[in-house]
Amino acid sequence: MKKFYQLENLDCANCAAKLETAIKAIEGIENASVNFMAQRLMVETSADIEKILAEIEKVIAKIEPDCELVR
Fold first, then answer.
1. Distance CA 5, CA 24 (A)
2. Are 22 and 59 in contact (CB under 8 A)?
3. Distance (Å, rounded) from C-alpha 39 to C-alpha 25?
4. Residues 6 or more apart in contact with residue 47 via CB below 8 angstroms
5. Is 46 helix (H, G, I), strand (E, B) or coil?
6. How far apart are CA 23 and CA 29, in angstroms?
7. Over its length of 71 residues, how does the chain's per-residue pLDDT go in tens digits?
8. Which residues fall within 8 angstroms of residue 48, CB to CB, at 6 or more apart?
9. What's the CA angle centered on 41, arms 14 and 32, to 5 degrees?
10. DSSP string, 12-43
11. Measured in whole angstroms, how far is the alpha carbon of residue 7 from the centre of its chain?
12. Chain center to CA of 29
């Protein structure tokens, strides 16, 4: 399943690249991409999306504390 989410307060392209790499490393994620210009996250997974989103939010808080995932 492919889902798209808006990211608020993503400050720089470097942080977006770090987020993308870290999110791709989460167990259950088949693919992910972060578009800095559009402030969007695309996630592909066949796992439980709620558990995946909780892990993604932890990664975001660690790398870019001011950034928020809009569900």
1. 15
2. yes
3. 20
4. 27, 28, 29
5. coil
6. 7
7. 999 999 999 999 999 999 999 999 999 999 999 999 999 999 999 999 999 999 999 999 999 999 999 98
8. 28
9. 85
10. -HHHHHHHHHHHHTSTTEEEEEEETTTTEEEE
11. 8
12. 10
CB 24 within 8 A of CB 39: no
Question: Residue 59 and residue 20: Cα distance in Å, rounded?
Answer: 10
Compute the distance between CA of residue 17 and CA of residue 47 in angstroms, rounded to an integer.
Answer: 23
Looking up tokens 């969007």 gives 40
CB 18 within 8 A of CB 63: yes
Task: Identify the CATH number of the domain defined by range 2-70.
Answer: 3.30.70.100
Q: Going by C-beta distance under 8 Å and a sequence separation of 6 or more, which residues neighbour residue 7?
A: 34, 39, 40, 41, 60, 67, 68, 69, 70
